[in-house]
Hints:
Strand content: 15-25%
Shape: globular
Strand order of the largest sheet: 1-10-9-7-6-2-5-3-4
Order of helices and strands: HEEHEEEHEHEEHHEHHEH
Structural class: alpha/beta
CATH architecture: 3-Layer(aba) Sandwich
Helix content: 25-40%
Distance between the termini: 44 Å
Largest sheet: 9 strands, mixed
CATH class: Alpha Beta
CATH topology: Rossmann fold
Number of strands: 10
Amino acid sequence: MKKIVLSIIALAAIFALVGCGAEKTKQTSQTTKSEEAAPVKAKDDSTKTNVPTVFIHGYGGTINSFGGMIQRLSNEGKTKKEMVITVQADGTLNVDGQLSKKKNNPSIQVLFAANKDNEWNQTEWIYTVLKYLKKQGVDQVNLVGHSMGGVSSLRYLTTYGQPNDTPTIKKFISIGAPFNDFTESAESIEDVLTNGPDTKASRYTDYSNGISNVPSDLPILLIAGKLDKNNASDGTVPLNSALATYSLLKAHGNPIEYQIFTGSNAQHSQLHENLGVDKTVANFLWK
Length: 287
């Protein structure tokens, strides 16, 4: 309990300084990917299914956090926003909209009323949302989480896996998620990708202990930001943290890719406003 309380306090203090609000950008910088990762190329003809994609904001996030990305992808005809689910602090749901069950790559935006609560509560709220969707006849979903939303999504997977009362997770994308807290390291990114982080925070240890719950055939994409060649961080989350779980998931058998975006548009709160990230997300989900 002491470790959890200290982790919550540390997390809240760091995130409170940076926030996860949305800001607009014009274009992306060059990306870098692993040798194992298949190239993600832009396509105009997205494959359309009725599988919803659930977008989960980060610490302090609002409807604006993923609102811009969803709107831009909707304007391009790649998705259609059909539902907003707001989770109250007591776990009750306020649902706006209805799933049409049409093959239009529907999007669902999840909002936490207590948007600065801890990742353990967020994990339970994700579970609650997915159970609701299962009752609505949804059998599969994609998960996309920014920052703490990615942390909580992976914690959901390592805690619950694929329970019978929730939809199967078809694909998972994390964007700027601190999977090893905010621990910086002198080790190279190549070493992190091959061997995992040298210093393992309690969060990473939890993932490692629960990795057997994650379906080994689940495709996963890790997106990270790097401000410049002298700053291996998006300004908030170090690269070694955003990519910390790559080797763990790869060794587990998961089809896994990563992409690093560079430049000012790769700043932590800019990642979900980055047009290159839009394209990468769309291609991974609907290529």
